[in-house]
Design brief:
The chain has about 170 residues and is an all-alpha fold. The chain contains six helices and no strands. The N and C termini lie far apart (about 60 Å).
Length: about 170
């Protein structure tokens, strides 16, 4: 029951973040929506006992790649002034209340639920070994090495292209 609820909540959070990426007019808000999507997917990986993939998701994608995106957004510049007026007067109270509810739910799930954050180390569950380093690294560096290298090359080209566009735009101004 708890895993189904977790799946629904994180799935909705991932969809909301994805919609924010597409709909938001401000590129920084789009990046924050991408962060919400990446973190929601990481929680879904943890629920599927793929802890290594979840850690890679948070460290590499939500950490390094999103930082690179934000750096490129700041380098290019948005060129419009932001108003600092609060358009949603009760937004802080609503977010604070939601945070309290999430913390209480997580504490209740941990204390009273039949839910383990990490599988017990004394017993080896065959399904729990699908997210280990050996299970992920073996196929990644043998069967999927071309796709792995192509992704790294594509990210490097995208970053270099964004920097070149920003440099070209500044020279013309």
């Amino acid at each position: 029951m708890a895993e189904a609820f977790l799946f629904v909540v994180m799935g909705l959070a991932a969809l909301a973040g994805a919609v924010t990426v597409v709909v938001a007019r401000n590129p920084v808000n789009s990046a924050i929506g991408l962060l919400a999507t990446l973190l929601s997917v990481a929680v879904l990986y943890v629920a599927q006992l793929a802890h290594l993939v979840a850690a890679v998701q948070v460290i590499v994608y939500a950490g390094a790649v999103l930082t690179l995106f934000l750096f490129v957004i700041m380098l290019i510049g948005v060129d419009k002034d932001e108003t600092r007026d609060e358009t949603l007067p009760y937004q802080r109270w609503i977010v604070g209340g939601l945070a309290v509810v999430i913390v209480i739910f997580a504490a209740g799930l941990t204390l009273f639920g039949d839910f383990e954050w990490v599988p017990a180390a004394t017993t080896i569950i065959p399904e729990a070994t699908n997210g280990t380093v050996e299970a992920v690294a073996g196929p990644l560096f043998t069967d999927w090495v071309l796709a792995f290298e192509a992704t790294a090359l594509l990210l490097t080209i995208a970053a270099a292209g964004a920097i070149a566009l920003a440099h070209y735009r500044r020279r013309g101004v």
